[in-house]
């Protein structure tokens, strides 16, 4: 029985690694398209290429997203970071993730309890950066709408609970179910005190859409190219490929990071 459980955990870790590699490959293909389009545009290829560049960068959506409104309590440069846990914690987990990203769900669903326990003990705090890679790669608006809804939950002091709920109910990557705001509101009903008129207006109006796009743009300026990107005190938790991450290993890493 023990061997079976071990094989299951190893298989899950392998699937997570494979999914992250696929997301990274998608990111590379998209950046290549942007680079080629930009070069051709500079060489005077005409309006056709300009349309490709505009669509890749968001086009009209960016112009009509409305004013940039950061969620309550957002921190960091340009206020694109949503904090969780106790500020005094010495270990910091920085997470770049997309609510439509399957590998992000595997990380969150596999390590949620461990992260929450460490946060409650004051040993770990987290900083979430929300991106929209899947919308950009596959089309749709699920990444954007879910991110906006999560920011609305942050306004209500319910970010962590709603964030976790979205990952527990994540649809298949190719199913843009989170693009339907009715689904996001339906899920909010499972978080006590979240489904209020203010929250519904925030979700329906896309109050934080421009902030989500700013957060995604900030991710694009980093050296990271896939989700989830998870750093513990600045170092990737996936760096040691020969010794895959487990809840026990994460606890040990947090304890070591807290020492300095």
TrEMBL record:
Signal peptide: none annotated. The keyword Secreted does not apply. Pfam families: Thioredoxin_4 (PF13462). Residues 81-254 form the Thioredoxin-like fold domain. InterPro entries: Thioredoxin-like_fold, Thioredoxin-like_sf. It comes from the Bacteria. Residues 1-28 are annotated as: Disordered. Belongs to the thioredoxin family. DsbA subfamily. It comes from Streptomyces roseoverticillatus. PANTHER family: DISULFIDE BOND FORMATION PROTEIN D, GLUTATHIONE S-TRANSFERASE KAPPA. The chain crosses the membrane at residues 32-54. This is Thioredoxin domain-containing protein. The keyword Oxidoreductase applies. Coiled coil: none annotated.
